[in-house]
């Protein structure tokens, strides 16, 4: 298979705590990959390594054939939603996304508004993010991850703490992104979401990774 993303022998420790040991897997373009495992098993750490937020102690990450860390700290064209997204609470959702978009300078207000509408947020809403509900913050995090039309999405627990309605909407949005052909990585503590959305599911256990469902081709 043509590997779009490849992790080779990734090992990561924090002091004496070994979190990941010789993790290897590869993913083809357009695949949706789920990661499951107990609390503290290393799912977020693996995602952070994939996004260049954490460096492995050894091993390589290749994204579209380019190795991370070789003059390239962060992979290109990867949309990221990890933990509770940090926004500036005194500004509106639109203003926050404008600040973030200015870092790359790739998109303008039109694309930001489109991303907000896509996740079900009103760009005209002047509410400060401090006063957003948890679900609105999650949606804003997803809007930020997709607004630059990145074709790889890394989504760590996007369903966390959502009410039923918002959870259903979020699931629908992710199904649409999958149908658009995005390559997606997803964690969730609800196995049925992972089963619905993912083509391949990996389990992290005892620092190792194992394919528990799906095909590698
Ligand atoms: N920056 C850090 N410094 C030290 N230890 C860390 C750091 N980040 C993560 N860890 C440790 O790495 C291990 C894996 O954490 P991680 O957040 O990846 O777990 P997880 O599988 O995402 O868990 P959860 O399902 O609870 O979100 C934990 O033991 C955690 O304490």
TrEMBL record:
Pfam families: ABC_tran (PF00005)
Domain ABC transporter residues, every copy: 5-216
GO molecular function, one term: ATP binding
Signal peptide residues on this chain, from the entry's feature table: none
Domain of life, per lineage: Bacteria
Record carries keyword Transport: yes
Keywords: ATP-binding, Nucleotide-binding, Transport
InterPro entries given in the database record: AAA+_ATPase (IPR003593), ABC_transporter-like_ATP-bd (IPR003439), ABC_transporter-like_CS (IPR017871), P-loop_NTPase (IPR027417)
Record family assignment: Belongs to the ABC transporter superfamily.
Listed name of the protein: ABC-2 type transport system ATP-binding protein
């Amino acid at each position: 298979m043509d590997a779009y993303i490849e992790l080779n022998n990734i090992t990561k420790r924090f002091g004496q705590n070994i979190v990941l040991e010789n993790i290897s897997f590869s993913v083809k373009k357009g695949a949706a990959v789920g990661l499951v495992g107990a609390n503290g098993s290393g799912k977020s750490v693996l995602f952070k390594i994939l996004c260049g937020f954490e460096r492995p102690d050894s091993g390589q990450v290749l994204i579209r054939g380019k190795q991370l860390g070789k003059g390239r700290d962060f992979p290109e064209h990867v949309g990221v939603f990890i933990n509770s997204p940090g926004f500036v609470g005194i500004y509106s959702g639109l203003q926050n996304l404008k600040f973030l978009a200015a870092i790359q300078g790739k998109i303008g207000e039109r694309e930001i508004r489109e991303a907000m509408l896509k996740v079900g947020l009103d760009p005209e809403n002047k509410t400060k993010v401090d006063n957003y509900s948890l679900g609105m913050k999650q949606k804003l995090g997803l809007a930020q991850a997709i607004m630059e039309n990145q074709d790889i999405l890394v989504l760590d627990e996007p369903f966390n703490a959502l009410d039923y309605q918002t959870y259903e909407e979020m699931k629908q949005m992710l199904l649409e992104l999958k149908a658009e052909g995005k390559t997606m990585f997803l964690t969730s503590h609800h196995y049925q979401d992972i089963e619905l959305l993912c083509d391949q599911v990996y389990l992290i256990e005892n620092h190792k990774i194992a394919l528990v469902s799906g095909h590698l081709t």
